[in-house]
Design a protein that fits this description.
This protein has 170 residues and is mainly α. The protein is 44% helix and 11% strand. The longest helix has 17 residues, at 13-29.
Length: 170
């Protein structure tokens, strides 16, 4: 279930993209998304498929995810493409998830993972956020920093952590 749906009941087409990503991970790994994977760490005894994929991603060992029943009967490049595609589909921020048409382009080989990632990042950088600020802080919607004044802007990252950065207003 997509995070925005699970937490807020907000259902969009990007929730379907999230579900497609989870399904792709299940197919590649042969593991159900809700199966507990035994994993001993100082904080957890078990992981689920989604957590394990991100752990393998951090360790740069994503091919360990591929179902061992496949033996050597698969293309490592294609498996990595599917896994990376699934990781893009399961980004916590729905703004960073691709559309299904972008996924189809990727699977058909018309766009690479790297190009899709660049496209997704550039599309979020150029979004007009004024309407969002107006909804969140209606009393401040008319107040803008003067030219050259420094202000802090916050945004939600992939891991739901709010980060801040200093920017110059134009």
């Amino acid at each position: 279930m997509a995070p925005e749906y699970a937490m807020r009941g907000h259902l969009t087409t990007k929730a379907d993209v999230y579900s497609f990503g989870i399904l792709a991970l299940e197919i590649v790994s042969g593991i159900r998304c809700n199966k507990n994977i035994s994993y001993k760490s100082e904080h957890e005894d078990y992981l689920i498929l989604f957590d394990w994929v991100w752990l393998l991603h951090q360790e740069e060992s994503l091919l360990e995810l591929v179902d061992p029943d496949l033996g050597s009967e698969y293309s490592p490049e294609e498996a990595l493409t599917i896994i990376h595609m699934a990781l893009l589909c399961t980004k916590a921020s729905l703004f960073l998830r691709p559309t299904m048409s972008q996924i189809v382009s990727l699977l058909e080989g018309r766009i690479s993972i790297q190009d899709l990632e660049k496209e997704l990042l550039s599309s979020t950088k150029h979004r007009d956020k004024r309407h969002l600020r107006k909804q969140l802080w209606p009393e401040l919607s008319e107040t803008h920093p003067t030219s050259g004044e420094r202000y802090t802007e916050s945004f939600v990252t992939e891991s739901f952590v709010t980060e801040s950065f200093i920017t110059e207003s134009s």
